[in-house]
Amino acid sequence: MEQMDGLDVVGCERCDDLCGSRSRIVNGVGPADADLLFVGEAPGANEDEQGEPFVGRSGDVLDEALREAGLDRGDVRITNCVRCRPPDNRDPRKGELTNCRNYLETEIDRVDPEVVVTLGKVPAEHLLERDVAVTGEAGDVFDVAIAGQPRRVLVSVHPAATLYDPSQGETFEAALTTAAEFTDAQSGQSRLGEF
């Protein structure tokens, strides 16, 4: 049996490999009406253990970049394309992304963010439905239809990319700054004074 309770998936058995490798379903966290919705690819070991997306080293990088952009993790929503940990932290397969797509689309629809920020190649290609040169397109905003609704999608490198290639840090921080400025322009106020 599978179902959603609000924004949370409370039961799903669609993917044998993922059901076999997960210890829990990792749902999104953050406000249900956030201006920014960050989308990663799938939970890793830390996320599967703690039941929250983007914890551990990647989460620390994301948290720091959010602070640098004048944002707080508690003010944004963070989720993944796939809600269960793939075996050996491999990328989610096309069928797994497809199986989980309606959960992601439902979450995006209900949160109704000003901007969806993709963290890495997998979510960028999944939501834009095309090949994406993430480093070259980081910080760019695209207007696309998701579940039939117009959405703004901002491409960003994955926080982990900055751990393996420190030169990506500036690219990552610039993309988050763009996201923050974009939502500030929509609300007519600056969040930088809050810190």
Tags for this entry?
Uracil-DNA Glycosylase, subunit E; disordered C terminus; 195 residues; two-stranded antiparallel sheet; 5-stranded mixed β-sheet; EC 3.2.2.27; 7 strands; 8 helices; 42% helix; alpha/beta
What does this protein look like?
By secondary structure, the protein is an alpha/beta fold. It has a single domain (4-181), classed as Uracil-DNA glycosylase-like domain (Uracil-DNA Glycosylase, subunit E, 3-Layer(aba) Sandwich), CATH 3.40.470.10. It contains eight helices and seven strands, in the order ββαβααβαβααββαα. The chain has a five-stranded mixed beta sheet. β6 and β7 (149-156) form a beta hairpin. It is globular and about 40 Å long. The relative contact order is 0.17. Mean pLDDT is 91; it is low at 185-195.
